[in-house]
Amino acid sequence: MRLAAGTTVTVALEKAGRVKVRYPAAVVSDDGAHVVVRAPWAGEKDRDFGFVRFEGGDVFTEHYWRDRWYSVKEVRDAEGALKGWYCDVARPARVGPEGIAVEDLDLDLWLSGDRSAVLRLDEDEFAASGLAERDPEAARAAWRALDELEDLARGGDFEDLLV
């Protein structure tokens, strides 16, 4: 099933078997494999990661795939300036009439808008999650996804992924 452009759906981000955050998003496009939605920053308050700050007014254009082990969120400030791309390693998105559900696997990558920084994040959280012991195949897929994202970010082909 494809989501219709212009409709509003719910995005549910899951972690460790529970919904971490749920928010409405407007469907931009859905080609059957790649879904794009747009939503304002869904956090209850601003969040400073040290390398970027997410805050009220920020707009996230989020890319989800039904067949890839990651999602990519382009982040722009309230004036439209590109902050960068936050990439979540996650199981392939589950898309249905109610929206999009994604299981976060802890590994993340940040690519700054000016491309000066490519940061692998939360590798310690991933190790502590125990996924490698519970589901070794999923853990290998997660590492491959992080490596793929980093290669795209460092190789200059990153935006081609989002078309």
Written overview of the protein:
- The chain is α+β, with helices and mostly antiparallel strands.
- The protein has a single domain, classed as FomD-like (FomD barrel-like fold).
- It is built from 4 helices and 11 strands, in the order E-E-E-E-E-E-E-E-E-E-E-H-H-H-H.
- It has helices at 123-129, 131-134, 136-155, 158-161; strands at 8-15, 18-30, 34-40, 47-48, 53-54, 59-65, 70-76, 82-90, 94-96, 99-112, 118-121.
- A 7-stranded mixed barrel has the order 1-2-3-6-7-8-10. A two-stranded antiparallel sheet has the order 4-5.
- Strand 10 and strand 11 (118-121) form a beta hairpin.
- The longest helix has 20 residues, at 136-155.
- The protein is globular and about 40 Å long.
- The protein starts with 7 loop residues before the first strand and ends with a helix.
- The model has no long low-confidence stretch (mean pLDDT 96).
- Keywords: Hydrolase.
- It comes from Streptomyces cinnamoneus.
- GO terms for molecular function: hydrolase activity.
- Residues 35-154 form the DUF402 domain.
- This is DUF402 domain-containing protein.
